């Protein structure tokens, strides 16, 4: 099983939830998107954001907010305490999270001249060690363009996570 991550921009959470509820097309086809295989927004992307800010601590990127699925999470201690249903979308996905404005703005602030250094720094993350430096640099460039478009339009950025067998 592999994790597919699609970073995209949308007008708001309601627009994303509408696309997800219809299930006619994935967000990657409905919105301006950058596909990034295995670039998890809570464990891998924060390393790029920290490097873009010139920081060492990847934990300072701000929390992501869950957008899809909606409803109570089955592991929520405030929830009903029922058995976990392994068909539940919280378990099977897809999942969508909204990135913090700080994350979007850090990505939007990446300048082309810094791409090689950022690719080298981010490429040291365990999840990216096997990636070619030019692939990492291209991904950073595409994410920064998407973030600039989102910031210019006053839109948030999101990440859709899906599993592929």
User: Structural class, from secondary structure content?
Assistant: alpha+beta
Q: Tell the overall outline.
A: globular
Question: What is the arithmetic mean of pLDDT?
Answer: 84
**What proportion strand?**
15-25%
Tally of helical runs: 7
Strand arrangement across the biggest beta sheet: 2-1-5-4-3
Q: How much helical structure, as a percent, in the residues?
A: 25-40%
Order of helices and strands: EHHEHEHEHHHE
Number of strands: 5
In the predicted model, the low-confidence regions spanning at least 5 consecutive residues are none
Largest sheet features: 5 strands, antiparallel
Query: How large is the radius of gyration?
Result: 16 Å
Report, as a whole number of angstroms, the end-to-end distance: 4 Å
What would your notes on this structure say?
- This protein has about 160 residues and is an alpha+beta fold.
- It starts with a strand and ends with a strand.
- A five-stranded antiparallel β-sheet has the order 2-1-5-4-3.
- It is globular.
- It has helices at about 15-20, 25-30, 45-55, 90, 100-110, 115-120, 135-155, and strands spanning about 1-10, 30-35, 65-70, 95-100, 155-165.
What would you say about this model in short?
It contains 7 helices and 5 strands; from the N terminus they run βααβαβαβαααβ. Helix 6 (115-122) crosses helix 7 (133-153).
